[in-house]
Amino acid sequence: MVSSAPAVRTVLGDIGPEELRVCDAHDHLFLRSRRLPGQELVDAGAARAELEAFRAAGGAGVAQWTPYGMGRRAADLPELSRATGVHVVCATGLHQAAHYDPELLDGLRGRLAEMFISELTEGIGTSGVRAGFVKVAGGFHALDAHARWTMTAAAEAHHATGAPIAVHLELGTGALDVLDLLCGESAVPPDRVILGHLNRFPDPVIHRQAAESGCWLAFDGPSRAHHPTDWQMPDAVRELAESGFGHRLLLGGDTVVAGARSVDGGPGMPYLLRRVRPRLAAELGPEPVERILTDNPGRAFAAVWR
What we know:
Layout: E1 7-10, E2 13-15, E3 23-27, H1 44-56, E4 61-64, H2 77-84, E5 87-93, H3 102-106, H4 112-121, E6 133-137, H5 145-161, E7 165-168, H6 175-185, E8 193-196, H7 204-213, E9 216-220, H8 233-245, E10 249-252, H9 271-284, H10 286-301, E11 302-303
Parallel strand pairs: 3-4, 4-5, 5-6, 6-7, 7-8, 8-9, 9-10
Antiparallel strand pairs: 1-2, 1-11
Helix pairs in contact: 1-2, 4-5, 7-8, 8-9, 9-10
Protein name: Phosphotriesterase
Pfam families: PTE (PF02126)
GO molecular function: hydrolase activity; zinc ion binding
C-alpha cells in the first residue's frame, strides 16, 4: 500500500516531515565495530543523557546511521525517544566489509535486499521497530565489489519501499562514483540519496557537481580535529548555499565512540547546535541555517512509503 503523502519513518511510527524539526541528520546512539575495540557506544543510560542534552540545546530529531550488524539496539530506541521527546530515525543497511565478520556477510548473500526491505516494512528482528532509511558505504575514491553489492541491494530496497539511501563516503571521497551507480545504473532518483562526510574532502568542484545532481549533501562530524571540518566547512556550506543549493544541505554530528559524547566530556550531539549553528549563522545568516537544520532533514528522510 502506498502512503498518500511523504512521511518520516521514526521508531515510534510515521510522522509528517515538518514534525521532525531541528534534526541532527547523522549521528549514533549505539554502535559496535570490530574496528573500534573498547570504544563502543553500548550504554543506554549514556544514550538517554546524550539525547536529553541535545534536546536541551534545542534539538528535536536524530537520524541514527548505525546499520545492520553494528549494535544499533533497535529495541531500545522507542523508549529512548519517548523518554526524551526526541524523534529517532533508525537505519537498516550494511557498512564496509571491514566492520563485519566474513561469516556474517556470507550469510547475507542472495538475500540482502530482502533483509533491507523487511526491516523497512515489517521491523527489525522482534523489536517491531521499522527502519526509516538504508545506510551503505563506499570506499576511498572507489567502489569495491562489497560497495557495489550493498548499493545495488539498497537501490532494490528503495524501489520496493520508497526509502531514502544514506551513503558513508570514505573520507568524503567517491561521491560521483556513488551517484553513477545509484542514480545512473540503478535509477534511484537523486533526491532519495544522501551523501555523508562531504566535509572530509572539501573539494568545491565535486561538491557542486554532486549538488547539481539533485542529491542531499551532508556535512557531518564537525568536531573531528584530524579532518578539515570546523575550519573549512563554513566556507563549503556558504559556497553551496550562495550557488542556490541551500535547500540540499544537511548537518550532523556523527558521534561514533563513547569518549566523543558530551556526557563523557566530548563534543557530542549538542555541539552541532551550540557551536556549529552559530558559526554557520555568522556566514549565512540565521534563517538559512535554521532551514538547513529544520526543513531539509524532514524532506531528506521523508518518503512516500510503499
